[in-house]
Amino acid sequence: MIIRRFKENDAEKVSQMIIRTERITNSKDYSEEWINALEKRAQPSHILERTAWTHFYVVEENDTIIGCGAIGPYWDSETESSLFSIFVLPEYQGKGIGRKIIETLEQDEYFLRAKRVEVPASITAANFYRKLGYDYKNGVDRPDKEQIYRLEKFR
To answer: What is the C-alpha separation between 133 and 128, in angstroms, rounded?
Structure first.
């Protein structure tokens, strides 16, 4: 298993991996309508857009992309950053790969320069991030109108 920076020709595989993961893993916490809306935002063109302003990483095993994650500035801030698009294929979940992605992102320059890092967490993933030191933003411990938790970590 290797973790490396995203390359343009990864976009289709990353898109397919995210969509598959959402359909299997997130379907227990979200409606079909919500999953369909997310799928539209996981298209290769959107992935390429995101990579233009974030540092996007992929996890690869035997030429298969099994996970991904990105970090970028929080609304162009120099002192705040955000984590994005953190996914691991269902059959690889629970094996420490998500933790390795977070560890990689937390060594990235966007993390190291930040005083605060936010992650928009799905209902499905909120406890995962909390185990890694991210806590509810402003103490709000329920999903927002977008059905996500806002979590943050201060450095």
So the answer is: 9
Q: Quick count: other Cβ atoms within 10 Å of Cβ 13? A: 17
CB 127 within 8 A of CB 95: no
The CA-atom distances, in angstroms, between 152 and each of 10, 79, 101, 104, 134 are 29, 13, 17, 17, 5
CB 30 within 8 A of CB 61: no
Distances from the Cα of 33 to the Cα of 36, 116, 145, angstroms:
5, 32, 15
In the structure, what pLDDT confidence band is assigned to residue 35 with cuts at 50, 70 and 90? very high
Helix (H) or strand (E) holding 55: strand 55-61
Residue whose pair of structure tokens reads 């397919």 in the numeric block: 16
Q: Amino acid letter at 116?
A: R
CA atoms within 13 A on the CB side of 137: 15
CB atoms within 10 A of CB 150: 18
The pTM of the full predicted model, rounded to 2 decimals, is 0.95
Q: What is the mean pLDDT of residues 9-26?
A: 97
Amino acid letter, 151? L
What is the mean pLDDT of the segment spanning 147-155? 97
